[in-house]
Q: What sequence folds into this?
């Protein structure tokens, strides 16, 4: 199956330290404990036209909208976006930044469908690879484990195989002989995620009810950047929440950006809920060019 113009095959991907933030060198931290704080513009500067970018969160929940808006301002083009989509996908499609979307869904939760994604898809302005939600997860896991594919049952008996003719099935080599889908690895050039808290080294924490699959996005990517509501000292990460809430460790992160309100208008509980009024304005503004330009100037600036 060809995800990105022949780039859907297995790539070499090495798990390990890939440090950034050299402008903070000389802080006295030991090797592997380098200060990774960056700005939004510095993160976006790591992107290039044609990259495959994975965006964490889920629908209209804990999306790294501060980083997404940075991409829009920078004018990056021809991206392949892998996402459990929400307004991140819609905003990038509206900006003409996307060539292809690989997705399990694109929804605003309380509003069923993102208006911009619907428009560009209906008009044939983007290529799409529509998968079962579990297949996206499986593809990220395969990339993180450096495997060419992982077997799964999701997709069998559905139109997923029909609309994605490049997908293959394999037969179990054991006595059962079961036929399953061979979900190919979803390799990412860059992963962008948003969490509640992080330290300057890249350890990051979610405080809401669901981790989503932000860790899988990071493990599947060559470069990984996390925005957060607040950068805190390492000890504070476990001061008010259990160690299990540390979703990302520093070996999974290349850059940390403190962006208070960086998920808005999507939710980032318990810090703030979804801004339903602003989300409705986003949808209404998409109806006309004049309204959209006005909204964009306010929201993306």
A:
């Amino acid at each position: 199956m060809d995800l990105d113009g022949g780039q859907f095959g297995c790539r070499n991907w090495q798990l390990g330290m890939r440090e950034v933030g050299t402008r903070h060198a000389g802080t006295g931290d030991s090797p592997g404990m380098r200060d990774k704080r960056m700005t939004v513009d510095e993160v976006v500067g790591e992107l290039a036209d044609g990259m495959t970018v994975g965006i964490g969160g889920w629908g209209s929940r804990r999306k790294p909208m501060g980083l997404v808006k940075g991409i829009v301002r920078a004018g990056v083009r021809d991206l392949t976006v892998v996402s459990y989509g929400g307004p991140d996908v819609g905003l990038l499609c509206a900006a003409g930044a996307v060539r292809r979307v690989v997705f399990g869904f694109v929804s605003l939760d309380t509003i069923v469908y993102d208006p911009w994604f619907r428009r560009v898809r209906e008009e044939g302005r983007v290529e799409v690879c529509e998968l079962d939600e579990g297949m996206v997860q499986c593809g990220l896991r395969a990339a993180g484990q450096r495997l060419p594919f992982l077997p799964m049952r999701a997709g069998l008996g559905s139109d997923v195989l029909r609309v994605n003719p490049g997908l293959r099935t394999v037969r179990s080599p054991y006595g059962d002989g079961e036929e399953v889908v061979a979900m190919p690895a979803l390799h990412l050039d860059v992963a962008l995620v948003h969490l509640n808290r992080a330290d300057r080294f890249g350890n990051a924490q979610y405080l809401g009810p669901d981790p989503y699959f932000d860790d899988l996005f990071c493990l599947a990517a060559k470069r990984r950047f996390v925005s957060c509501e607040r950068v805190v000292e390492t000890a504070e990460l476990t001061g008010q929440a259990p160690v299990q809430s540390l979703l990302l460790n520093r070996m999974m992160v290349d850059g940390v950006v403190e962006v208070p309100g960086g998920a808005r208008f999507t939710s980032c509980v318990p810090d703030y809920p979804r801004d339903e009024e602003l989300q409705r304005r986003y949808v209404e503004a998409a109806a006309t060019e004049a309204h959209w330009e006005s909204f964009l100037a306010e929201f993306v600036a």
Q: What stands out?
A: The first strand starts at residue 52 and ends at 55. Residues 1-28 have pLDDT under 50 and may be disordered.
